[in-house]
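in:
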């Protein structure tokens, strides 16, 4: 059955071609057909249509790592290559992904850095890497015989990304710009030492004090003063290991959330314990900033500490700690049941607290902001909303929510980076909440809360809108 062939035969017959003539030129036409096909196969990968070949290949051979899991530098103390400083140092699969880009711009449409006016764009990064392939590997010399300089190693490409993962989520061919950003950072931090001062200061704090704030380790438990918090001890059995993270231990505002969490757990008679001074940073900030060595040291020390305790599960209120513990510690043998606080609270027995519209009318309009590392990256979106709904809150939604939520601007180490006042991502997200006519922003991430409070304070809107962690709202409502 050959509908196209039959159609062509009818046309040729109408033009007067006889069967004898067709048989005579058949072999010639076959050779021409094969020649054109082979020529197209060779030429297309070198043209703008290259993605027709490379995109399906990239989809087939792409990394199957979880979105929140970064690639590990194996045997880091003896590794010769730390990050990427030259285009040749990218893996074959990564090089293929640069050629697979369709240049569609979906990543730019959702990138918080791009939309805030920053010079960083995920498409620009991938396209500059593709151009480097062409100038360095495909055409390795110019007229003078010298190799062209690498043009993708800019400060914008290296430090503009918040690692929110939205570009990965919308890419039709599964390109991962975040992986490239992290490799560029690793090269600067671990090899060249050329990095922004705020990055160097933060990493130095982590090396010397064990936390990004640079606070003395003995102040980690200051927030527990006046509270009854059980200290986790080796040999004692308990259900929940409460892992709070550095933000709630050292940041004054987030310490209030830690206190609310303890009150909430006591209200629900949860058998939990806290590491106290033995709790150490999970290392997430160091890894996202490119210091893989500090991260691996912290991960190994924490895993050793956890192995001495007899608990059933880890509960953390920080999405960044959650992602690190659940997706990245298994790379080093740390396999645990890890729950975000909102997930855990939803497992506790409770009567249905769904309320009617009339019951909600007297409460403030509350909008829930999905943290990137909780919602989009780890697919935890229903649990926080269930808690707010069961507490009879007048909950509304922002236009960008759930997996399409807009970043607060605090991820990827940006909590500690100096940013231009004209390109602050948190201001854009605050505008989303204001456009939804919210009176209260509820979130489930200490970074998000800090970024929102900074935006509210800088815009002088403290009397118009407030931000709270879900645990604070639940305590005020007297709910679980």
């Amino acid at each position: 059955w050959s509908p196209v062939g039959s159609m062509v035969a009818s046309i040729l017959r109408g033009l007067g071609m006889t069967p004898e003539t067709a048989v005579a030129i058949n072999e010639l036409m076959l050779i021409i057909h094969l020649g054109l096909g082979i020529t197209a196969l060779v030429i297309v990968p070198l043209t703008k249509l290259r993605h027709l070949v490379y995109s399906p290949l990239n989809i087939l051979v792409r990394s199957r790592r979880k979105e929140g899991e970064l690639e590990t530098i194996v045997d880091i103390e003896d590794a010769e290559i730390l990050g990427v400083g030259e285009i040749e140092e990218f893996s074959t699969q990564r090089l293929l992904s640069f050629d697979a880009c369709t240049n569609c711009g979906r990543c730019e449409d959702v990138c918080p850095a791009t939309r805030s006016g920053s010079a960083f764009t995920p498409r620009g990064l991938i396209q500059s890497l593709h151009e480097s392939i062409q100038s360095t590997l495909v055409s390795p010399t110019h007229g003078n015989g010298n190799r062209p300089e690498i043009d993708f190693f800019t400060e914008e490409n290296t430090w503009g990304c918040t690692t929110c993962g939205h570009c990965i989520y919308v890419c039709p061919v599964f390109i991962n710009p975040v992986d490239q950003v992290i490799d560029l950072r690793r090269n600067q931090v671990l090899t060249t030492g050329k990095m922004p001062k705020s990055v160097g200061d933060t990493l130095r704090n982590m090396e010397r004090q064990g936390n990004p704030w640079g606070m003395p380790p003995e102040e980690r438990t200051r927030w527990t003063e006046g509270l009854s918090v059980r200290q986790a001890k080796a040999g004692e059995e308990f259900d929940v290991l409460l892992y709070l993270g550095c933000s709630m231990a050292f940041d004054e505002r987030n310490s209030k959330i830690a206190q609310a969490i303890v009150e909430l757990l006591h209200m629900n008679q949860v058998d939990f314990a806290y590491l106290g001074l033995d709790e150490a940073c999970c290392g997430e900030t160091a890894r996202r900033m490119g210091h893989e060595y500090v991260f691996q040291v912290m991960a190994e020390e924490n895993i050793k500490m956890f192995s001495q305790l007899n608990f059933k599960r880890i509960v953390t209120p920080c999405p960044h700690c959650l992602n690190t513990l659940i997706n990245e510690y298994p790379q080093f043998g740390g396999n645990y049941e890890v729950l975000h606080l909102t997930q855990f609270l939803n497992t506790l027995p409770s009567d249905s607290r769904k309320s009617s519209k009339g019951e909600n009318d007297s409460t403030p309009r509350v909008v829930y902001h999905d943290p990137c590392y909780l919602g989009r990256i780890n697919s935890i979106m229903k649990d926080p909303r269930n808690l707010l709904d069961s507490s009879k809150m007048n909950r509304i939604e922002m236009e960008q929510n759930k997996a399409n939520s807009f970043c607060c601007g605090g991820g990827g180490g940006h909590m500690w980076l100096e940013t231009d006042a004209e390109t602050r991502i948190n201001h854009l997200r605050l505008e989303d909440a204001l456009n939804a006519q919210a009176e209260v922003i509820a979130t489930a991430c200490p970074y998000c809360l800090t970024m929102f409070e900074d935006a509210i304070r800088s815009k002088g809107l403290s009397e118009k809108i407030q931000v709270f962690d879900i645990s604070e709202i639940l305590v005020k409502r007297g709910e679980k």
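note: Residues 351-361 have pLDDT under 50 and may be disordered.
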